[in-house]
Specification:
Layout lengths: L2 E9 L5 E8 L4 E5 L6 H16 L7 H10 L7 H22 L3 H4 L8 E9 L2 H13 L4 E6 L27 E4 L1 H19 L4 E5 L6 H11 L6 E3 L9 H8 L4 E3 L10 H5 L5 E2 L8 H14 L3 E2 L9 H13 L6 E2 L5 H6 L5 E3 L2 E3 L12 H4 L11 E4 L4 E2 L2
Parallel strand pairs: 4-5, 4-12, 5-7, 6-15, 7-8, 8-9, 9-10, 10-11
Antiparallel strand pairs: 1-2, 2-3, 4-14, 13-14, 15-16
Helix pairs in contact: 1-3, 2-3, 3-10, 5-6, 6-7, 7-8
The protein binds 2-keto-3-deoxygluconate and magnesium ion (MG).
């Protein structure tokens, strides 16, 4: 069997997606997600200029060798653009292998380690009262785990508060929108939010929260400590993780569990965090961390250190990524939770998929491969639209992390 063609499909059914379609001489094809929010065209160029020409003629069954070829062979290793491109190839090749075998990917990866994949949904509101109502709505929809984000008094906007009630898309303008951030206002408000949520709903549901890289380690220690009575499932991205050592300081001050890694692209980004047990959940996922081949390696390392998986699953990760992640989640022994931010109806129509949601759990389905397809004719009706993620400034105008 040989790879005869590989095409990059860009579409925007509500938001931009980059998909790689790898075709073979016996008619089987595989799909991989290559979407990098706000930087989509860089991955398209990397794939078209540097990856696709070297793929043609290869045996698609040689997944590990092809992964090593594009990782080691590039000389310029790692980085989100390179690793998203490698992920797309890797995902497409696993999809082909599953289709040839007539098996869903979780079967190729050792079978089911659990019956279903617990997912968390996003409840958010412009203020505390609206966020409480939204958490109630997610409980009614059957979620066992709910992420709560709220507008902060005194701040015009913040991360995680959607204009639409089920879908959240922060990449809203061709040129980045500027937001304003105040750590003091946030630190004052955040514990009140979780105090109110536990007072109203008790402790039956898992509650999660995303700090979105906005605190220093010592501030994160303080917040984690003040959230301890409300027993969060995790606090996410408390501080930027380029400096992995910073998490030692957080750990010295709080036992609130920590999740990190949605912006990671290799195992090295998480090496100290995992081996020193500085985090509890690793959030790397299929598309930005080199595909299933590399993510499974990260999960194996994490398993040795009691770190569980919590794959990123925002709307900018396409259904192809979601279907693959669900197969990974079902099979990996140290799974923790899967993020599930629903896609719009337009996106779901462009990417017909086998996965389903039922009472707080998701199931990848039993279609061979990852179980997600693309309707290319429909995709062509939604051309690419430039969109960037926002940026943040402090009240005095200095740039901050968004
Ligand atoms: O593209 C950026 C989003 O994926 C990110 O802001 C979402 O932090 C996020 C999350 O936890 O889903
Ligand atoms: Mg996040």
């Amino acid at each position: 069997m040989k790879i005869t063609a590989a095409r990059v499909i860009v579409c925007c059914p509500g938001r931009n997606f980059v998909t790689l379609k790898v075709e073979t001489d016996d008619g089987v094809y595989g799909l991989g997600d290559a979407t990098l929010n706000g930087r989509e065209k860089s991955v398209v160029a990397y794939l078209e200029e540097h990856v696709v020409p070297a793929l043609i003629g290869r045996d698609p069954a040689q997944i590990e060798d092809i992964w090593q070829y594009f990782y080691r062979g590039a000389y310029w290793r790692r980085g989100p653009v390179t690793m998203s491109a490698i992920a797309a190839v890797d995902t497409a090749l696993w999809d082909i292998k599953g289709k040839v075998a007539g098996l869903p990917l979780y079967q190729l990866w050792g079978g089911k380690s659990r019956n279903g994949v617990m997912v968390y949904g996003h409840a958010n509101g412009k203020d505390l009262a609206e966020t409480i109502d939204e958490v109630a709505r997610y409980i009614d929809m059957g979620y066992k785990a709910i992420r709560a984000q709220s507008g902060v008094p005194g701040l015009a906007s913040t991360y995680g508060v959607a204009k639409d009630r089920l879908f959240y898309e922060p990449a809203d303008a061709a040129l980045a929108t500027e937001n304003m951030w105040s750590t003091a206002k946030y630190l004052d408000f955040c514990p009140k939010l979780f105090e109110a949520l536990r007072a109203r709903f008790g402790f039956e549901h898992h509650l999660l929260h995303d700090i979105h890289h906005r605190l220093t380690p010592i501030e994160a220690g303080l917040l984690g400590k003040s959230l301890e009575p409300y027993r969060l499932f995790w606090m996410e991205d408390p501080t930027p993780a380029e400096n992995q050592e910073g998490f030692r300081l957080i750990r010295q001050h709080t036992v609130t569990p920590i999740a990190v890694g949605e912006v990671f692209n290799t195992i090295y980004d998480a090496q100290a965090l995992i081996t020193e047990q500085l985090i509890d959940y690793i959030r790397a996922t299929i598309v930005h961390a080199g595909g299933p081949t590399h993510l499974r390696r990260i999960a194996s390392l994490a398993d040795l250190y009691h770190v569980r998986t919590g794959c990123h699953g925002a709307t900018d990760l396409s259904p192809v990524c979601m279907g693959t992640a669900l197969n990974f989640d079902l099979s990996v022994p140290n799974f923790g939770v899967q993020e599930y931010m629903r896609h719009t109806e337009e996106t779901d129509a462009v990417f017909p998929h086998a996965y389903t949601f039922e009472r707080g759990y998701m199931y990848p389905g039993d279609a061979p491969g990852h179980g997600v397809d693309i309707d290319e004719k429909l995709a062509a009706k939604y051309p690419y639209r430039p969109a960037s993620l926002p940026v943040n400034r402090l009240e005095d105008g200095a740039m901050w992390n968004w």
